[in-house]
């Protein structure tokens, strides 16, 4: 079984939004094993996702916020994004191998399964029954999911409503840009490893994992609708709306999760970007949109270092 995003209320809403816009390289890899459901049609519209630029004497660095899973016909490219990407020699992602199923499977076996604490020992009988209904939507049963740790079960189940609504991990921004980078023989780099992203989720406290799973089950039918809203804001470059839906509530209500998913990682990435600026040339960075909005954005940490990121209009 495989993980994915859930955009739901309470704990699942905060975690799911964060994953959708910050850490879905993992989900992109693993989602390919889920059975496909019938997608809904999507109509292309003009789009203008936000793009920032950092410059010094001999370097130009672009920051582009992404969504890791989209409907196949979602139009998101723009002339300024294409120009920035095409001009870059180096392309940076959260992880360099978001489509490497072989790499993720051993990590899931190590961090996503627990025979000692199966779901049946952590959930009530009613919750197990609800789990079984949701599991059957992706072709399995609660009994087959029983060895999964709660974080992995929650991400696995959240794939079904998104696929049914027409979302496809293969249409996500990262995989599209990764293919373009390879075709153009650009140099590909990553801020993190696949193992780091898995461990970030797997090392959440168990009560937080259970809250995520329970909320995923409770608000199962809302996931696609909430992702629709996030994608709509992202496509038109509405960073205030993205901050509100992806960051503000999590920062207020779940500060530990906020630190784990955003603050700590953004600070680390700003350090890596600062180091990159010591070189020369043009670099294009594509990371989840949640990392580029809010009070603890990558740009905020860059500003603390005296590095200004200017939005490209």
Describe the structure.
The relative contact order is 0.24. The chain has helices at 10-22, 25-30, 79-87, 101-111, 125-136, 142-145, 150-157, 159-164, 173-183, 194-202, 206-218, 223-235, 239-253, 255-276, 298-304, and strands at 51-55, 59-66, 90-93, 187-190, 281-288, 310-311. It is built from 15 helices and 6 strands. It has 313 residues and is an alpha/beta fold. A hairpin with a 3-residue loop joins β1 (51-55) and β2. A 6-stranded mixed beta sheet has the order 4-3-5-2-1-6. The termini are far apart. The model is unreliable at 1-44 (pLDDT under 50).
In short:
The protein is α/β, with parallel strands linked by helices and 313 residues long.
Biggest sheet, in brief?
6 strands, mixed
Query: Biggest sheet, strands in spatial order?
Result: 4-3-5-2-1-6
- Number of continuous helical runs: 15
Uncertain stretches of 5 or more adjacent residues: 1-44
Helix content: 40-55%
> From the alpha-carbon coordinates, what is the Rg to the nearest angstrom?
19 Å
Give helix and strand order, one letter per element, not per position: HHEEHEHHHHHHEHHHHHEHE
Count of individual beta strands = 6
Strand content: 5-15%
Structural class: alpha/beta
User: Mean pLDDT, as a whole number?
Assistant: 83
Which outline best applies? globular
Distance between the termini: 42 Å
């Amino acid at each position: 079984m495989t993980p994915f995003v859930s955009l739901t209320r309470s704990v699942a809403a905060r975690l799911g939004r964060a994953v959708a816009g910050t850490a879905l390289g993992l989900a992109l890899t693993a989602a390919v094993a889920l059975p496909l459901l019938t997608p809904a049609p999507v109509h292309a519209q003009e789009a203008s996702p936000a793009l920032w630029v950092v410059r010094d004497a001999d370097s130009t660095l672009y920051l582009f916020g992404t969504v890791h899973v989209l409907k196949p016909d979602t139009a998101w490219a723009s002339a300024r994004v294409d120009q920035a990407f095409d001009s870059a020699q180096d392309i940076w992602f959260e992880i360099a191998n978001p489509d490497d199923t072989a790499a993720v499977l051993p990590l899931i076996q190590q961090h996503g399964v627990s025979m000692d604490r199966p779901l049946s020992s952590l959930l009530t009988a009613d919750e197990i029954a609800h789990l079984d209904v949701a599991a059957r939507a992706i072709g399995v049963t609660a009994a087959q999911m029983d060895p999964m740790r709660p974080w992995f079960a929650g991400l696995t189940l959240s794939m079904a409503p998104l696929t049914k609504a027409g979302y496809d991990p293969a249409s996500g921004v990262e995989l599209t840009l990764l293919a373009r980078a390879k075709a153009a023989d650009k140099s590909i780099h990553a801020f993190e490893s696949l193992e780091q992203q898995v461990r970030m989720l797997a090392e959440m406290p168990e009560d937080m994992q259970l809250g995520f799973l329970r909320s995923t089950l409770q608000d199962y039918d809302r996931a696609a609708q909430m992702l629709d809203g996030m994608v709509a804001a992202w496509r038109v470059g509405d960073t205030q709306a993205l901050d509100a839906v992806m960051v503000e509530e999590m920062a207020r209500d779940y500060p530990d999760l906020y630190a784990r998913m955003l603050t700590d990682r953004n600070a680390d990435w700003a350090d890596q970007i600062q180091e990159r600026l010591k070189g020369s040339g043009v670099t294009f960075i594509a990371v989840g949109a949640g990392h580029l909005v809010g009070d603890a954005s990558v740009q905020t940490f860059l500003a603390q270092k005296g590095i200004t990121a200017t939005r490209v209009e």
